[in-house]
């Protein structure tokens, strides 16, 4: 699996949720913070995004915004409105699809509002490299694949058919990848630092792929440097400069993220999880995991299983 796909797969903690929102002015909807990331697509009409910090952001038809931490915010027709909570209605509680309607005498705005269950609390350069709010304005001819995914998503909302839940879930996952790709495409080509640069850097990318392909291997700075064709010292400097953290720090963080996903989504015994993530004993693994997450692996597994798989934050669901 390629590095970006693998990273999203491991950081994902559950299924995404999405709602079609139709609002007639005057209106304002308040979105509570969620433990994940969020997005909005303006299908029709105009509105404003009021972030927790900064100025209102005017949005028009086709605009897409991505909030990398699922921060609380407001969407409204005009910035001076008093907001009400965003609470989607779902015909079936097991469905990821919801509907919100705000009646009023004024112009209509149609939005697709969604949330991803992603472990954004654990630092990873993928999300650390993004601004708090990513705005992809609608520009004719730009990002055609992203626009196609949005069109397919809107078609499923407009005329749902058997299997729509599965189709919508798949399209939302695709949308996240396309949003990230589109954002990366907007960055200067000469950019030499950050996650975007790391994915294509001739020295760093092979080392990242090695870590992702086999997190349980006893990697050292020297062996990773050999993959990159550099000496130990030169590789360590290059990796830290591009990625933003030393190679063994990244390795440890990735092993812990991988372990957390295995504990969440599999019934593998702790000894198997330990071996898969590079620890020769269950005790050493448990000690490292508790240091990283603040809870031993068994307790963590029970906690995440109890919490469920949806983005936490009632107003996005």
UniProtKB/TrEMBL annotation:
Keyword DNA-binding recorded: yes
Keywords: DNA-binding, Transcription, Transcription regulation
A Pfam family recorded for this sequence: HTH_18
Keyword hit for Transcription regulation: yes
SMART domains per the UniProt record, alphabetical: HTH_ARAC
PROSITE patterns: HTH_ARAC_FAMILY_1, HTH_ARAC_FAMILY_2
Domain HTH araC/xylS-type as annotated: residue spans: 205-303
Signal peptide: none
MF annotations from Gene Ontology: DNA-binding transcription factor activity; sequence-specific DNA binding
Domain of life: Bacteria
Protein name: AraC family transcriptional regulator
Organism of derivation: Kitasatospora indigofera
């Amino acid at each position: 699996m390629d590095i970006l796909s693998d990273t999203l797969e491991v950081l994902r903690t559950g299924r995404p949720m999405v709602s079609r929102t139709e609002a007639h002015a005057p209106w304002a909807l308040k979105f509570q913070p969620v433990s994940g990331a969020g997005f909005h697509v303006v299908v029709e009409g105009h509105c404003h995004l009021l972030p927790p910090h900064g100025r209102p952001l005017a949005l028009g038809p086709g605009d897409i915004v991505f909030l990398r931490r699922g921060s609380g915010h407001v969407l409204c027709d005009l910035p001076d409105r008093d907001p009400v909570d965003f609470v989607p209605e779902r015909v079936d509680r097991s469905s990821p699809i919801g509907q919100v309607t705000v009646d009023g005498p004024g112009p209509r705005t149609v939005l697709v509002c969604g949330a991803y269950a992603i472990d954004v609390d654990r630092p990873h350069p993928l999300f650390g490299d993004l601004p708090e709010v990513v705005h992809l304005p609608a520009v004719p001819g730009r990002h055609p694949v992203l626009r196609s995914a949005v069109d397919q998503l809107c078609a499923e909302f407009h005329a749902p058919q058997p299997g729509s839940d599965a189709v919508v879930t798949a399209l939302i996952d695709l949308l996240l990848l396309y949003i990230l790709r589109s954002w990366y495409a907007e960055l200067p080509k000469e950019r030499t630092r950050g996650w975007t640069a790391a994915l294509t850097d001739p020295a760093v990318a092979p080392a990242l792929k090695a870590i992702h392909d086999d997190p349980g291997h006893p990697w050292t700075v020297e062996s990773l440097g050999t993959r990159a064709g550099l000496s130990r010292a030169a590789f360590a400097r290059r990796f830290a400069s591009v990625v933003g953290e030393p190679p063994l720090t990244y390795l440890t963080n990735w092993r812990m993220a991988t372990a957390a996903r295995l504990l969440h989504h599999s019934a593998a015994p702790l000894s198997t999880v330990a071996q898969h993530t590079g620890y020769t004993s269950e005790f050493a693994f448990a000690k490292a995991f508790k240091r990283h997450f603040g809870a031993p692996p068994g307790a963590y597994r029970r906690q995440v299983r109890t919490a469920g798989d949806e983005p936490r934050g009632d107003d996005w669901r």
